Amino acid sequence: MGKEHILAFDIGTSSVKTSVIDRTGKTVASASKDYATSHPKAGIAEQNPEDWWKCACATAKDIWEQDKNLANHIAAIGVCGHMLGCVPVDAEGKPLANAMIHSDSRAYKQSEKISRLIGKQKLYEMSGNILDARSTLSKFLWLKEELPEVYGKTAKILQSKDYLTACLTGNIDTTDYSDASHGELMNIRTKDYEKTVYEELGLDVSKLPTLYAGKDVVGKLCQTGAEGLGLPSGIPVIAGGGDGACSDLGGGNVEVGNICCSLGTTAYFSSLMKEPYIDPQGRVFNIMGLDGTNCSLFGTIQSACGALNWVMDILGETDIQVFNTLAASVGKGSNGLIFVPYLDGERAPIFDAKARGVFFGLSQSHTRAHFARATFEGVAFALNSVLEAYREMMKVSSIHMIGGGAKSDLWRQIMADIWDAEVVVRKGAGSESNGLGIAAAAGVGIGLFESMEEAIGQMQVESSVLPQGDNQVYREEFAVYQSIYVNLKEQMHRLDEIRFARE
Predict the structure, then answer these.
(1) What is the pLDDT of residues 23-56, one digit of tens each?
(2) Burial label, 259 (beta-carbon count in 10 A; 0-12, 13-18, 19+)
(3) From 112, 206, 269, 273, which residue has the greatest number of CB atoms within 10 Å?
(4) What's this model's pTM, rounded to 2 decimal places?
């Protein structure tokens, strides 16, 4: 066994998953370890970056216990991480505050200020992404205005994967195009920071790290990193990428015109594009790929499996199989119960951090089973509202699905019925897609593969689901679903004001 294995770290919403992946795309060993997310107030979501490194070290050592020889055959290391973060670190790489993660929306006032000074449309055309309170740019400005002492001590603003890469290499000055584009930090066409934006906002652009393609080697495993992981030093480490770009690649989205759906804590559609696309209605956004050349068009909803887990907790159900069985016991449309999954605000297609979730149409006839099915259907409706933007550009007949939610037979069928499209799942593209994507990029970065297409070309179709039966009820309920937010938006915003006034 030669040195043809990739060590892939995936910093997820609730855990670090570490995998060793061989050149055929097979995961030969893996381990995961959970960490906490803090929600001290509505709109705040924080994690301790040091937990990511502790979990990375623990999971790596768990893998060597599974097979002690694997540690001698690692050719490269890559890190994938959740996006839209803000991790301020000092010159030594020490975190100066908890990380504001993707669902943190406290920078609402800053996003409004950016809109006034720069212009929402101008930022969209520059970065390819929609201005939002959750963007890294908004969080960067929040840090300056709300924590000026921390801002003053900050050497670099990092993303989750950048922090872990810094722990591996000792170099805090790296990020990649995927995170920088999605965070509205860079010009997606010039692949550089737009300095006039930072001058207008009074932000120090030197606090942002150097930009690289995700596949680029940015350092080697340093002695401290090697000791933490139980590996020899000197292993090449790539810049890595945001989870959206990694799962997009890992799901096999390497052909222009394909549509992929990732169904995880959040969920999104993506389609590989030759050039960034600026939607006249501002519903979708662009993220640079790990190759540093191509980009994908994304439409992300904020709560998918996250909403599912929340409903399960509220209902006191811990077994996902039982929850699936409950949902399958009632008919399409959940007897008129509609779920709007805006639990943490919503991104595509409305981009409203103050939007909130709704169960609509409640009556005493509804049971736990109806709530279960309505949850599956509500997430599918939310995604369908995003899919409409893609239908205006291309024919949508088949959608590749990845992510943990793809494992549910019932959910895949509901998606196919509501979307009126075939749903295809590839082998290895379930919850492993992030690791596969970053491993492919690392393999290309060190010359193990000539291209991304070669790196993931071995994945095969595992299953395919077509729409079944009469889905008129879904078409009718989707129209109602779309009207709920429109009619309740003002009240949602008023409730948000009332809540924050009392805190």
Answers:
(1) 888 899 999 999 999 999 878 999 999 999 999 9
(2) buried
(3) 269
(4) 0.85
